[in-house]
Amino acid sequence: MAISIHLDEILKERHMTSKELCGLIGITEANLSVLRSGKAKGVRFVTLNKICHYLNCNVGDILDCDGILEEEENEEE
pTM, whole model, 2 decimals? Predict the structure, then answer.
């Protein structure tokens, strides 16, 4: 995967549960689960800003890019 998510590691380091983070940033546990699993197609900057604020981290602590271009799958196939 071109973009990897390190949210679980940051949550563990901060001794915070995903449920606690959801309450702070105002999203459902299901939506955070999609983001944590790396299956999200995108994330709003405002959500990312809240995550970074409450976890006291930077975007680069959560998201990592391996430099490989991942082509979007054609949904018509």
Answer: 0.84
